[in-house]
Amino acid sequence: MISASAGLFLGLFGGYGPRLLDSALLLICDAIVSLPMIIFALAVVALVGPSIFGLVLIIVTFSIPVYFRFVRTQAMVLRGTEYVKAARAIGASPGFIIARHLLPNVLGPLLIMMAMNIPSVIALESGLSFLGQGIQPPTPDWGSMLNDGYSYIRQGTHVIIAGSLPIIFATIGFTFFGEALRDALDPRSSGRKARDT
Questions:
Q1: Which of 35, 78, 190, 196 minimizes the number of CB atoms within 10 Å of its CB?
Q2: Three-state helix/strand/coil letters over the chain
Q3: Buried b / exposed e across 149-172, counting CB within 10 Å, b at 16+?
Q4: pLDDT band for position 105 (cuts 50, 70, 90)
Q5: Cα–Cα distance measured from residue 128 to residue 123, given in angstroms and rounded to the nearest whole number
Q6: List of domains in the chain
C-alpha cells in the first residue's frame, strides 16, 4: 500500500507534470532499479538490523519504481485523450485534471497490478527471511519456517512442507485474484469474454 500510494502520487505528477520533474523522477527510479536487490538488502540490514522495519523499507524501495513507471505510462497516455485536451482548453487547472480525469482512470489498472504484485512481494519477503535477513524468531514467518525445515529435513520433512505449502497457495491464490480482478475491472476483457461465449 505504501509503495502503490507513493508510486501513484509520483507517477501522476511525473506523467502529467513538467518535463523536468518527470526526468528527475525517472532518473531516481532508474538508479534504484539498477541496484542489486540482495546487496541493497544486506546494506539495509547492516544499518537497521534484521527487523520488520528493514524488510518493509527494502520492499517499499524496490516497489515504488515499478508502480511509478506504470502510473506514469498510464498518465502520459491519458494526457493525449480528447477529454483531457478539452478540459485543458476550457482552462481547467492541472490539479483538477489529475484528480477528475487521470486518477479515476488509473486506479482500476493500479489495483490489478497491486494484486498481481503481491506474489512477488511474498516471495521476496520469504526469501529474505529464509536467508536470516528478514523477520526474526520468535515472530512467525514462512521464510523462517522454511529455514528451520531445511535444517531438520532429514529428521522430519513436515516442517519444510508446512512452511512451503502456504507460500505456494498464497502466491497462486493472489495470481488468480489478480486475473479475476482484471476481468472484473477491464471492460475490454469483459467484452472479449462475452464475444467468445
A1: 196
A2: CHHHHHHHHHHHHHHHCCHHHHHHHHHHHHHHHHCCHHHHHHHHHHHHCCCHHHHHHHHHHHHHHHHHHHHHHHHHHHHCCHHHHHHHHCCCCHHHHHHHHHHHHHHHHHHHHHHHHHHHHHHHHHHHHHCCCCCCCCCCCHHHHHHHHHHCCCCCCHHHHHHHHHHHHHHHHHHHHHHHHHHHHCHHHHHHHHHHC
A3: beeeeeeeeebbeebeeebeebbe
A4: confident
A5: 9
A6: 2-196 (1.10.3720.10)
Cα 135 to Cα 18, 130, 151: the distances in Å are 41, 9, 18
pLDDT above 70: residue 63: yes
Whole-angstrom distance, CA of residue 75 vs CA of residue 119:
26
Tell me the longest C-alpha to C-alpha distance in the chain. Answer: 74
pLDDT value, residue 139: 78
Task: Work out the average pLDDT over 151-155.
Answer: 75
